[in-house]
Specification:
alpha+beta, Heat Shock Protein 90, 3 domains, six-stranded antiparallel β-sheet, five-stranded antiparallel β-sheet, 14 helices, 52% helix, elongated
Amino acid sequence: MPRNTLFRKMVLLLVMMLVPIVGLYFYSNRTSTEVLGTELSQSSANQLNFFQTQVNTNIERFSLWPTLLIQDPDIFGFKDVFLNSEYFNLDMINLVKRIQTKLNIQESSSDWKTKLYIFSPSLGRMVSDNDVESYDNDDLKKRMRPGWQVKKMGEGDEAYYSFSLFTAYPYSSFSHPEDANLIIELQFDSSNIQNMLDKFKSDGRRDPIYYRPDMGVIYNRSADRPLTDSILRQLRQEPLKKAENRRLELDGETYLVNIAASDTTGWYLIDYVPLKEIVAPIEQSNRLFYVSVGLTLLLSCLAAYMLYAQVQVPVKRLVLAFKKLQHEDYSVRLEAKGNNEFGFVFQRFNSMVGQIQELFENVYMERIHVREARLKQLQSQINPHFFYNCFSFISSMAKLGNMKAVVAMAHNLSNYYRYTTRQERDVVPLQEELDFVRSYLEIQKMRKPQLEFAVDIPEVMRKWEVPLLVVQPLVENAVLHGIEPKSGAGSVRIAGEVGPGEMRIIVEDGGRGMTEEQMEGLRRSLTLPMSQDMGCGLWNVRQRMLIHYGDTAGLRFAKSGLGGVRVELHWPIEHTNIRTGSR
């Protein structure tokens, strides 16, 4: 069938017209998307920086609180108070209450939940907005470090981070808390940052987080943690910059990630958004454009098809019909649709194919008759092969006066002749063939008493059909060419096997055997036309197997474990029948 049909040419022309339009639209759309992505990245970076500035401003404001508190007269005077007894006196209690009130006012001055603690080494007491208690000086010394300290608290989903800042008076006593006159600690936890992240997310962002490589992650409360962790794993593959944006591929989806670092805390504010959410309106516009182009192409193709169906389709059907004829499918017919020129051509085509089919059927039947005649001829060539030896045996026994052997041989020969002259069937059950082979072996055992034989055929195989006289020639060759030339006892074994996709009947003997070169010569001779120099037994068996079962059937030769030759008769299992005449 020609490839460039009329319909294809018309469709190709339409496509060539639409491709430049689609290409220009695609280029314009891609440029717009890139500009939009750049602007969005800049906008996201500005919002992150603004958010980071808010957090830093709060933390820097908290850093001034201890300095402001020390300027308070009550708190500054608290450093010079000493206890003369285990309990506070009235003046001391009033002083502590005033300090607690001022701490509470200071903590309430911010939207963040903070906690202020004042440590007095002279009293050995810690004052908070609602309590006064003793403290462990060693523990305090361990926790005191310059700048903001961050500590992870809890595990799993309950984990949070505690931020603390210490101020000592005088500052020179920072590393020796026991020498300080006054120590102030400011604390807040990561829930304050989570509140800001939640508010930032509610403005339309997608899962903003705080991240510090040596500490961990502060998630917003509705964060998609598995997705966030996957993005962080990819980000860690390259060093993070103070301010940057990246595009990451994750599970087939592209994410736009913006990063802003805090100089105050060392934490990174990271925000990400799927790129498809950004370009979704553009993609929808693209889909509408492509759908309109597709509809235009579809309508154009429909118009082309109207012309194509009237001319090209009938021609194509006619060409396909000729291809089937080329592959010898003579059952092909064309159905004429409509009363037009092609209807007339199809009628004439059907008439021509019908005449060709009838001619070939006649020729095929003649070939079948020739094949059957050849099969009968091959069978008839096998029948006389055994009689000569039998008559020679009867003659010898008669000369020796062994009439019992003559009678037995004549009886077996009668049975043998009756089986070999059954030309009314091409195939017989394997059991009948085995009975015939057993009679043959009994006759040979009369000639050579040392001969031993065994038949090991599964019961299920005995009902299968095989061509007439295909096992006996193999047994005869084993006896005549394997056992008799060898002095002493000999054995013949007949077995049946069901292999992968094929059936096998194996005949092996304990005779003198053959070399590998002799076997190879035997294999070659069976593939050549029969000549006067070779015996017809094995050649006829192989030819009959090929006629009955095709090229996959035949004979195999190998060395036998009994010492002689192993001959394997094989044919495809799908060609095996059980009841006579079912083929």
